Amino acid sequence: MTSKKKIAADLQSALSGQSPLSIDLYVEVLADYEDELKASLDKDADDALLCMLADDGEVAMMVIDWDGSIYRNENALKKLQAMWRQSFDTNVQTLVPILSDHISQKNLGVAGIKWLPASSD
Asked: Which terminus of the chain has fewer Cβ atoms in its 10 Å neighbourhood, N or C?
């Protein structure tokens, strides 16, 4: 079993763009969960859903938007960066430990995303 620390490092590396995302891991594992995760997004009334998986140094990810659009791997990363323009690094630092904990327990790393109203300065 891959350690939580190694999984966190792999996720961090992929999210920072330092290592490529794995299309093989996406096709072999994550693709099978697209419909289930899409239904979960609707049920939970989240604005978007992030799902990541790390296995033997490979990482795959998807983002499902509020309208049901599915973004895979690099497109998911670009979508996440656009969604979190001002807070990408902060959100990544918050989520990586949570996602790596899920993945280390042989689950998908899944996080619902809700939009907060912009603060008026």
From this structure: C
